[in-house]
C-alpha cells in the first residue's frame, strides 16, 4: 500500500520535471522504449516508460487508449504493429485527458486511420482554450467525439462505459470495460486523471468527488492506469511472466485498487487543506 503511494508520488514528479536531464530522458524514444506486452486476451500495453497507451481489441477493430506525443508518435505506430496489429484497424482513440502526453499523438493517428477521437467536454474546452492562447504543444485537434458521463462506446462485441471524473483536468475520461484472462472475464477500470498537479479549491473538490464516485463503484477487479507506474504495470507484468498454471493473476487485484483510491483520497485531502489555506491568504 505504501508502495502504491510512492509510485503515485513518483509519477507526479515525472509529470512536472524539475531538471533538464529529466526532461531529456522523458522525451528520449530510446530511453523510453518498452517492448509491447499483452496483459489480457483483449488488452495490450503499447506505451512507453512514463506514459501508457493501450490497445483494446474488439471483433470490429481496435480501440486505442491515449496517444502519446511528439517524439513517440512514429514509434507508437511501430509498437502497435510489433504487437501484431494493423494501426489502420484503430477505430477509436479514447483520450483520458487533454494534457499533451496523452492527447499529443491523437491527430496524427486520426489522420492516418480515420479513427474518431473521443474526449470529455471539459477537456475539449481546455484544448480549445489552450489553442486560442497559443499554449498547445502539438497540432490543433478539431473537436470530434464529445463523451458525456454515462455514454457507452460500442465497437463490435465490446462496450466501454464512460465517466466524466474531473479534477486533474476539467474533463477526465474514466472507463469501465471487460477484460478476459484466458476467457475468464474481469471488470476493468481506467481512472483517467490521477496526478495532483493542478490548483484551486474548486478543482480539488471536483477531484475528491470523482474519487468518491470511484470508491462507491462495486466489482472493479483490474486497474488500467494511464501512467504505468500508477498501477505497478511493469512489476505486475514481470510477475506474470513467472506465473504458474492456476496461480492468481497479478493484474486482477480488487483490494489493490481500493487501497490505491484510499491513498489518493488521503493525498487529495491534504491538498485541499493547502489550497484552502492559500485561498484564504
Ligand atoms: Zn495529465
What descriptive keywords fit this protein?
12 strands, about 280 residues, disordered N terminus, globular, about 40% helix, 5-stranded mixed sheet, 7-stranded mixed sheet, alpha/beta, Metallo-beta-lactamase, Chain A, binds zinc ion
Global structural class? alpha/beta
Radius of gyration: 18 Å
Q: Report the major sheet.
A: 7 strands, mixed
Bound ligands, named by name, code or SMILES? zinc ion
Q: What is the level 1 CATH name?
A: Alpha Beta
The average pLDDT score comes to 91
- Enumerate the strands of the largest sheet in spatial order, edge to edge or round the barrel: 1-2-3-4-5-6-7
Describe the structure concisely:
Helix content is 40%, strand content 21%. It contains ten helices and twelve strands.
Walk me through this protein's architecture:
By secondary structure, the protein is an alpha/beta fold. It has a single domain (2-240, 248-280), classed as Metallo-beta-lactamase, Chain A (4-Layer Sandwich). 40% of the residues lie in helices and 21% in strands. The chain has 10 helices and 12 strands. It has helices at 2-15, 20-26, 29-32, 73-82, 100-103, 106-113, 121-132, 201-216, 233-241, 254-280; strands spanning 37-40, 43-45, 54-58, 61-65, 90-94, 116-120, 145-147, 152-155, 158-164, 173-181, 184-190, 222-223. The strands form 2 sheets. It has a 7-stranded mixed beta sheet with strand order 1-2-3-4-5-6-7. Strands 8-9-10-11-12 form a 5-stranded mixed beta sheet, with no helix packed on it. α4 links the parallel β4 (61-65) and β5 (90-94). α8 (201-216) packs antiparallel against α10. The longest helix is centred in the C-terminal third of the chain and has 27 residues, at 254-280. The two termini are 35 Å apart. Mean pLDDT is 91; it is low at 1-17. Zinc ion binds at residues 97, 99, 168, 195.
